[in-house]
């Protein structure tokens, strides 16, 4: 339908009272009023509530993103931020204590080793489960313990797994009265078992110290990056280096002390 010029329309344009962006056609031939098809382009003063909400959301998103970026930048540019170094040393110490807890005083047997032993419950399958999930280990006092197997079909698999673990040096015996019970005599600690425990303690200690030095290298790289980008004064960087070395030295000394305590406990008779 061809459009008509406004001069040919039987109406006049009148602004709306409540919204100046709306024009109405007022009929000159007693027709009823109806909203016109012409609307002004939105200006900053005529944004709807939805438009304002969307703009505000975009501002918040941009501000949050900027703050996040600034925060990361500040962390990387602060030579005195040693939080990662402290956390790294703490993780190494936690790991060390966990490993040493597996070594009993005098080189004796630690039931945790038996709890964590992997058992192939199905012949020909690579899937394994920890012995602790299949049975209950009960110390009987003295130098023996009992294994209560939950499912009798797992008895043979558990016996085989224990016998195959040379580092345990255990020989479970099936109870003739209770087929799901395994009696396990614990051998007396020998010089060989003590020497093995001492060697293990020394190795895990060396691994923990190596881990601390690796964490130090990461912090050293960060300080070098700050130096190259000139994000801190040379004097501050020099002091930060000294502080880093103090933290690392303390961490290594704590590890050595922990190893020394474990070594003395193993050597006791």
Automatic annotation (TrEMBL):
GO terms for biological process: translation. Residues 96-266 form the Ribosome recycling factor domain. The keyword Mitochondrion does not apply. Gene3D superfamilies: 3.30.1360.40, Ribosome-recycling factor. One of its GO terms (cellular component) is mitochondrion. Residues 49-79 are annotated as: Disordered. Keywords: Protein biosynthesis. Residues 63-72 have a biased composition (Low complexity). GO terms for molecular function: ribosomal large subunit binding. The keyword Protein biosynthesis applies. InterPro entries: Ribosome_recyc_fac, Ribosome_recyc_fac_dom, RRF_sf. Residues 49-61 have a biased composition (Basic and acidic residues). Belongs to the RRF family. Necessary for protein synthesis in mitochondria. Functions as a ribosome recycling factor in mitochondria. This is Ribosome recycling factor domain-containing protein. It comes from Erysiphe pulchra.
């Amino acid at each position: 339908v061809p459009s008509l010029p406004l001069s040919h329309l039987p109406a006049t344009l009148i602004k709306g009272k409540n919204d100046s962006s709306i024009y109405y056609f007022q009929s000159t031939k007693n027709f009823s009023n109806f909203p016109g098809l012409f609307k002004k382009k939105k200006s900053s003063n005529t944004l709807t509530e939805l438009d304002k909400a969307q703009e505000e959301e975009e501002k918040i998103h941009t501000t949050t993103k900027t703050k996040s970026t600034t925060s990361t930048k500040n962390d990387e540019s602060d030579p005195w931020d040693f939080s990662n170094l402290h956390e790294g040393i703490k993780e190494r110490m936690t790991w060390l204590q966990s490993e040493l807890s597996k070594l009993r005083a005098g080189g004796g047997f630690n039931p945790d080793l038996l709890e964590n032993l992997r058992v192939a419950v199905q012949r020909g399958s690579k899937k394994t489960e920890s012995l602790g999930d299949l049975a209950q280990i009960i110390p009987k006092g003295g130098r023996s313990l009992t294994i209560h197997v939950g499912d009798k079909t797992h008895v043979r698999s558990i016996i085989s797994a224990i016998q195959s673990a040379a580092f345990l040096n255990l020989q479970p015996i099936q109870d003739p009265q209770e087929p799901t019970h395994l009696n396990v005599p614990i051998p007396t600690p020998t010089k060989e078992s003590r020497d093995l425990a001492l060697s293990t303690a020394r190795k895990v200690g060396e691994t923990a110290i190596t881990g601390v030095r690796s964490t130090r290298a990461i912090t050293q790289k960060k300080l070098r990056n700050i130096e190259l980008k000139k994000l801190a004064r040379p004097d501050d960087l020099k002091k930060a280096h000294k502080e880093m070395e103090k933290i690392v030295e303390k961490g290594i000394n704590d590890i050595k002390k922990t190893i020394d305590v474990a070594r003395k406990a193993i050597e006791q008779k």
